[in-house]
Amino acid sequence: MNLNPHPSSWRSHHFRAMGTEMAFWLETDDQAAAQPAFAEAEALFRHNEQVLSRFQADSELSQINSRAGQWTAVSDLLWDVLVVALEMAERTNGRFDPTILNKLEQAGYTQSFEQMLTYTPLPNPPDYPVALGNWQDVVLDEADRSVYLPRGLRLDLGGIAKGYTAQQAVALLAQCGPCLVDAGGDISAGSPPVGYDGWPVAVTTPRTSPIQVDLFTLPLAHASLATSGIDHRRWQQNGRSHHHLIDPITGQPADTDLLTATVWAETAVVAEAWATATIIQGAAAGLAALQTHHMPATLVTQSEELLLTPAMATYAGVAYA
């Protein structure tokens, strides 16, 4: 996301975490106050990545995955993210499922994407005894905040973890002024800048386009916008093209007619889960589900057709067809 040109009071901070580029924006005339706020919010991303990353062998999530078949007490952070992930699995009728890590790795996504690109060919993926994940098999004990995973079941909280952390970062930065957090294209905003209805956030064409252009711009305030798609994280394995969005029903990369789905919601975790679920369902079923739940969303099909839910068309001021 590019907010240039912008007023001089819009301070920005850029760094890399959770396998993607991050950007903070904060409106303040006090540069001295902005820097420690940026540092604290970046440290939050570093800490949460250490707890929630499946790519770090010593993360708490990796430890939980290695203890499947027994009860394990977890930190407040892991508990909160897992609870919201399971809630979103239920709300999307299982199309978003945080328990499909086995099949994700079988498809070849065994390490962070930038590291995967250095391996040609990809190593043979592991063969796990459990064919498919099932979010309903995760058991929670709220009294002592412990989790039970059946043997063979493993969790991936990547997108939800990123959205959850973005929301936390907004809460931190908001203490200094109007703010926005761009977590690799998943965007959460606090109060709007002075004189604006919201932070001007552009919805763009997929990365498969020869030149990315803005489709339209939305004023984002006290809300989030998440984009999921198969236009970027792709790789070759056994002569076939794969992507990272697994259909929980088939256990394979989703056979979808969509390239991207961008969803507006009050929280980043809701937007993230619905964007993923929509790609997996495909254009017809995905659009119907979004409209049933009154979710503003923009879809781009593989034939480059632009689809908007009525709620998004109204929000963006775009004619709905």
Describe the structure in your own words.
- This protein has 321 residues and is an alpha+beta fold.
- Helices cover 32% and strands 24% of the residues.
- It has helices spanning 31-52, 60-66, 76-91, 101-106, 113-116, 158-173, 268-281, 283-292, 310-316; strands at 10-17, 20-27, 71-73, 139-141, 146-148, 179-183, 186-189, 199-204, 214-220, 223-229, 234-237, 240-243, 258-265, 297-301, 306-308.
- The strands form 4 sheets. The protein has an 8-stranded antiparallel beta sheet with strand order 1-2-6-7-10-13-14-15.
- Strand 6 (179-183) and strand 7 (186-189) form a beta hairpin.
- Helix 1 packs antiparallel against helix 6.
- The protein starts with 9 loop residues before the first strand and ends in a 5-residue tail after the last helix.
- The relative contact order is 0.13.
List keywords for this structure.
321 residues, T-fold, eight-stranded antiparallel sheet, 32% helix, single chain, alpha+beta
Short synopsis of the structure:
The chain is of the alpha+beta class. It is 32% helix and 24% strand.
Strand-helix topology:
Layout: E1 10-17, E2 20-27, H1 31-52, H2 60-66, E3 71-73, H3 76-91, H4 101-106, H5 113-116, E4 139-141, E5 146-148, H6 158-173, E6 179-183, E7 186-189, E8 199-204, E9 214-220, E10 223-229, E11 234-237, E12 240-243, E13 258-265, H7 268-281, H8 283-292, E14 297-301, E15 306-308, H9 310-316
Antiparallel strand pairs: 1-2, 2-6, 3-5, 4-5, 6-7, 7-10, 8-9, 10-13, 11-12, 13-14, 14-15
* Assembly of the depicted chains: single chain
* CATH 2nd-level architecture of the domain at 58-156: Orthogonal Bundle
Fraction of residues in H or I helices: 25-40%
Strand order in the largest sheet: 1-2-6-7-10-13-14-15
Question: Sheet bearing the most strands, described?
Answer: 8 strands, antiparallel
| Euclidean distance between termini CA atoms | 27 Å
Q: Compute the number of strand runs.
A: 15
Strand fraction band? 15-25%
CATH superfamily of the domain at 58-156: ApbE-like superfamily
Low-confidence stretches: 115-122
Strand/helix succession: EEHHEHHHEEHEEEEEEEEHHEEH
**How would the global form be characterised?**
globular
The CATH topology label of the domain at 58-156 is T-fold
Mean pLDDT: 87
How many helices in DSSP terms?
9
Name of the level-1 CATH class of the domain at 58-156: Mainly Alpha
Rg (CA only): 19 Å
